Amino acid sequence: MACPPVGPHRVLVLALDLVVVVVMFFLFFASSRANSIPLESSRLSRVLEIHEREREPASVQEEAVRGLLDRLLPSHSSSFEFKIVSKEYCGGKACFIINNHPSFDSKGSPEILIHGVTGVEISAGLHWYLKYYCTAHVSWEKTGGAQLLSVPQPGTLPHVPSAGILVQRPVQWSYYQNAVTSSYSFAWWDWERWEKEIDWMALQGINLPLAFTGQEAIWQKVFQGFNISSSDLNNFFGGPGFLAWSRMGNLHGWGGPLPQSWLDDQLALQKKILTRMYNFGMTPVLPAFSGNVPFALKSKFPSAKVTHLGNWFTVDSDPRWCCTYLLDATDPLFIEIGKSFIEQQIIEYGRSSHIYNCDTFDENTPPTDDPEYISSLGAAIYQGMQSGDDAAIWLMQGWLFSYDPFWQPPQMKALLHSVPIGQMVVLDLYAEVKPIWISSEQFYGVPYIWCMLHNFAANIEMYGILDVIASGPIEARLSHNSTMVGVGMCMEGIEQNPIVYDLMSEMAFRQKQVDAKMWVDLYAARRYGKPVTGLLDAWRILYQTLYNCTDGANDKNRDVIVAFPDVDPSIISTAELPKVRGNLQTFWNILEGDLLEDDAYDRPHLWYSSSDVVHALELFLENGGEVSDMPTFRYDLVDLTRQALAKYANQVFLKVIEGFKSNDVRHVSSYSQRFLDIVKDLDMLLACHEGFLLGPWLQSAKSLARDLEQEKQ
Asked: How confident is the model at residue 127 (pLDDT cuts 50, 70, 90)?
């Protein structure tokens, strides 16, 4: 068969490909052997082989990246060429390679050529080039969006070194989401918003995202097979904003019932989400059966082992919403339902990535600490997955190991070893503060993903631990007998602290620890499109204060102006209160001792010098003039001012308490008015930026409604 003619452009590309393959083989063969990871020798390797075999064709993935570029930077749609390559091309690992295009000097032709093992790696390579060669920045729209004004015009893009830039993944997976993010952040998203998020994921190199949308419609069909009608489920599913906790068995019915149109629309949305994720070469994680069942199951199957759980923070412990039902994993019905749920998803979606999330014991303690019983529970849970998908991998959040003291070494081992090694992957959910991999001897040999939790309950607070993020994943991967197979971001709410997520996403591609101080300097320049000396100085202060929390506390933002203490001032001891002169933390530390008779609320968290942060705010105000029109700067200015005012309000509140203690009505009245004035100031401030408004959240909920009654719901 005769070969088609090959033009000079194609010859140049083929020649470049051959050179890169040969060079990369010799340069990286030794390092890939030396830094082998558990994926290569465990049962996980089988699933990875299946993933590669079932992945979308190269043309589909390349087209997905071209679509991303058209949406992100349409003016440069012809400036880049993308090409899928095999792992062998990258020295045996997933990677991206950035080269000057062979026809770079030809007017109107592509300037940069990016190779990658999947569409995700190519997207991450595009982002890397924009960040480090064009001083660009990408974040969520609410936090300022993308700063792309610094990208040179087509035809003038910067060259990379002639040998090219090769960046390998040191570990296979980059995980994203928390089981509750779907309610804290995603509850009202339509396809337009989801498309932006999937683009963001791809640019950050995320290849293992949760995909939980629309599962209630699947559950409808599953439970119909067990003689449970749709009306029986009206009090089982929570309302749209509370589905995360309904799915986890924490509550039921609150905000419901769900209209059928919602169920159908969400299922259709999930199919779009999955298609786009697969087109990029991602591995979406689907839900599995955890044992959470409707009350109707008990009446349909009276002999089933169903436990009526206790209250979990629900309204007045009202049985209409609290105290859900859990099917014991040792009951034969558990495996039947688990199998049906997996099979129904595969039927509905046409495929699966074979990785399933299940968290039966997330804040639900087993009835006994007998290791044999716990092992039998774990084995049954996995059998429910495997009976529906022979290649199933169980992905489990490791939050239970840091949250519940029930899980001592014997119980941990029993659960972790209840399935063959390599068929479970654990998320070390809070590794930046409370790493479990250290205390559990690498999860007793079970593969795990080093995760950053960072955000609780979608609360807004400028907070982070950049030094730990820049070093923690590296230390874990290089530790003795490491079983680490990925990095992850498990925040409960998104669209906050973009600097934290910018750095954490990079750790999926970092072989060595990052110099956080230098990185922050580059971040400030990228964030605003150019270096501004005063703003660089301000960010150095923020790095050393707000983003250097080392006290190990859970940062939930309980500033008084955010969560006013539900405490009667009279419960504070009549012992003399310390004089508060800016030393707010000292005061709260004393309250945490014997002075409070009622310890029923969380106190504000302060881990830095307030005066230093106020000085950083002054630098923002003094030096922001030349970038004042940048959405990224405007967001940061509002956020930093909000942070400073919120902490100041705490001090004013304490002054009110002092006046109350001394029966000084004038003192109480004066500082109470000052506090109320701060509330008004904050409201005016936050009204300046859409990222802090309630209106878009309400409107996005209404936009998904089919009629006026649904709008109200």
From this structure: very high
